[in-house]
Amino acid sequence: MAMPDLNLLVTLDVLLSEGSVAGAARRLRLSPSAMSRALARLRQATGDPLLVRAGRGLVPTPRAIELRGQVGGLVRQAEAVLRPVEKLDLKRLVRTFTLRTSDGFVESFGPGLLARVAREAPGVRLRFVQKTDRDSALLRDGLVDLETGAVGETTGPEIRTRALFKDRFVGVVRKGHALCRGKVTPARYAAGQHVFVSRRGLERGSIDEALKPAGLEREVVAVVGGFAAAIALARGSDLIASVPERHTARLRVGMHSFALPVLAPDVTVSLLWHPRLDADAAHRWLRGCVRAVCAAG
């Protein structure tokens, strides 16, 4: 079997990025006719038209969309392999990293992480963005450098993960709430009104399953997309919020927290990143910082 022309990977990466033969030709400093011939070779190699005419422009086929992230990652990895390795000088490092996390993670671990980064690499800036789902597209597209959260079914199979810590759920209510006094039994817990956290808008979860054997069912009167919102509602009302303990430690200051009276599964909070950054020295250093801060916390 003939060895494929690996130079076509760079051409395919640029073509899929530009979505235009003329635009790709300009970036690669080729003539339009040479780029058209390259596209023809790519079509033959992949067995797919890749880009098809739609009005005056070109649109990618489903196969092209599927290849876009893979090809981009392969090209970046190849560039890293062929680039001379330089010793990382943290004091001279100037770079901005984008971290996709929950509000609770920023509240609990952000101050410690910022202090460590400022101490070791003063030229590094951290940009925190809200995590509203578990989709790996932003990592795959290079728009996010690191994520924290639970690994789920929608996490891409190529994504690298490293467990940071296990967290257990606790109940939290405002000061003066009836559950601040006496033992919190499954019946007392279920009898209250609850705020439930679900990014997908669900109204039931593992805690509700844990209540079923006792014949209990809690009343969910509000559904929110994040733990910070759930705690805010509980702080200003008689609602009961059930949230991860370590993840929300700072958010719960001034409130009453209690161990759940049912056995709910722990959640593993992990660090996630794309494999194209696996060998990047600065990225590896930042991953170590996050792990150290979470371990200390």
Secondary-structure map with pairings?
Layout: H1 7-18, H2 21-28, H3 32-46, E1 51-54, E2 57-60, H4 62-82, E3 95-101, H5 103-120, E4 124-130, H6 137-140, E5 146-149, E6 160-167, E7 169-173, H7 186-191, E8 193-197, H8 206-211, E9 219-224, H9 227-235, E10 240-244, E11 256-259, E12 267-273, H10 281-296
Helix pairs in contact: 1-2, 1-3, 1-4, 2-3, 5-10
Task: Explain this structure.
This protein has 297 residues and is an alpha/beta fold. The protein folds into 3 domains: 7-82, Arc Repressor Mutant, subunit A; 90-167 and 269-296, Periplasmic binding protein-like II (D-Maltodextrin-Binding Protein, domain 2); 169-265, Periplasmic binding protein-like II (D-Maltodextrin-Binding Protein, domain 2, 3-Layer(aba) Sandwich). Helix content is 39%, strand content 22%. The chain is built from 10 helices and 12 strands. The strands form 3 sheets. A 5-stranded mixed beta sheet has the order 4-3-5-12-6, covered by helices on one side. The chain has a 5-stranded mixed beta sheet with strand order 9-8-10-7-11. Strand 1 and strand 2 form a beta hairpin. Helix 1 packs across helix 3 and helix 1 crosses helix 4. The protein is elongated and about 80 Å long.
Q: From N to C, what is the helix and strand string?
A: HHHEEHEHEHEEEHEHEHEEEH
Please give the domain count. Answer: 3
Shape: elongated
Number of helices: 10
Structural class: alpha/beta
Please, what is the CATH homologous superfamily of the largest domain? Periplasmic binding protein-like II
Give, in spatial order, the strands making up the sheet with the most strands: 4-3-5-12-6
User: Termini distance?
Assistant: 55 Å
CATH-level-2 architecture of the largest domain: 3-Layer(aba) Sandwich
Major pleated sheet:
5 strands, mixed
- CATH class assignment of the largest domain: Alpha Beta
The percent of residues in helical segments reads 25-40%
Percent of sequence in beta strands: 15-25%
Low-confidence stretches: none
